[in-house]
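Board notes, transcribed. Complex of a protein with pyridoxal-5'-phosphate.
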Amino acid sequence: MAAFGTVFMPQMSLAEFKDAHWTYHNMVSSDRIELHPGAHVLHYSSTCFEGLKAFKHADGSVHIFRMDQNIARMQQSSRLLALPEVDSALLEQMIIDAVGSFTEQVPSPPGSMYIRPTHIGTEPAIGKAASPTQQSLLYVLLSPVGDYFSGGIKPLKLLIEENGSRCAAHMGMIKSGGNYASALGPILAARQQHKADQVLFCPGGDVQETGAANFLLIDDNQIITKDLDSSFLHGITRDSILTLARDLGMTVSERALSVDELIERAAKPNTEAALSGTAAVLTPVGSLIHNNKTITVGSGEGGPVTEKLRKALNAIQWGEAEDTHGWLTRVN
Ligand SMILES: *Cc1c(COP(=O)(O)O)cnc(C)c1O
C-alpha cells in the first residue's frame, strides 16, 4: 500500500472567493491549481486545512464522520487567520459532492476515504504582510487510505519537550500549515537525538499535545487530558473518545496535567497513554523520554482500555455499532 496521503482521486471540488463572494466550480481536475507567484498564502501563510474520513459500510453505503465538527473548525481556523469567511453550507456541499463522486473508490474497513478540505489566500499582493487576502481558493481533496496499523500496532516513544513549543500560543487551535512548519525542527531533532517517534510538547511543564495528535492519559477508570484552551488543537477524535468513555462509565478529567504527574502515574503498571487523531483514532504510547531517561508507560505495550475505546469508535464508523450520537452523514 502506498504511503498515507500519496494517492489522490483525479477530481476535487473547488470554490473561489473573489469580489466579496464565493463561486462554486464543482468538480475539477485535482492534479493542479493555478496560483500567482505573489499569492498571499505563499508569502504570509494564509492557509488552513481539515482532515476527516468517509467510511464504507457492509451494505455499500458511504458515511462521513462528524462532518459538521470539521466544517465548524475550518470556519474557526479561517476566521482566526483572517481568511474569507467559509460558508458552512457551501463547504458541506463541496465535501458531499467530492465523496459522492467517488463512492465506489471508498475503501472498505479498516480502510477509508480521507478528506482534506483546504483553504488558501490567493490575492496576488506581496504588500499585504499585515492585511488579509481578499481572494481565496477552497478545495476538497480525496485520498483513499488503507489500514493504518497494517504493520501491527507499535507503541510510540515520545520525547517530553518542556522548553520549546509546537507553535505560538495564540495559534494552537488553528489547523494551519504554519504550525506544522513550526513543529518540524523539534520533531526532527527528537528523532535524530533520541530516536523518538514524536515530541510531546509540554511548555512550562504543562502536558499539551504532539505535532499532530492529542494526548490522553488513562489511569484505570479515568482519562486525563488537558482542558480546551486556545493553545492547542481541539481534536474531534479527542472529543469522540471522551464521549464514548463517558458512555462506558469512565471518569473523564479535562484539566491541566503536569509533566510531574504524568511521570508519577506512568510508573503504575495499569497506566496507559495514547495519541488521538483522525488518521489512527488512538495510537498507544509505550514510553516517554524525560531528561535523557526513558520512562515506560504502564506495561510499555498498548493497553486494553486504549484498544476498547479505539474499537468502540471504529465500530460506529464502520456501521457495526449504533450511531447513538448522530455522528455519521450518509452520502449515497
Ligand atoms: C488535526 C490535529 C489533531 C487531531 O484532530 P482530529 O480532529 O482528532 O483529527 C491534533 N493535533 C493537531 C495539531 C492537529 O493538527
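The longest strand covers residues 112-121. Helices lie at 40-44, 67-80, 88-101, 177-194, 236-247, 259-266, 304-317.
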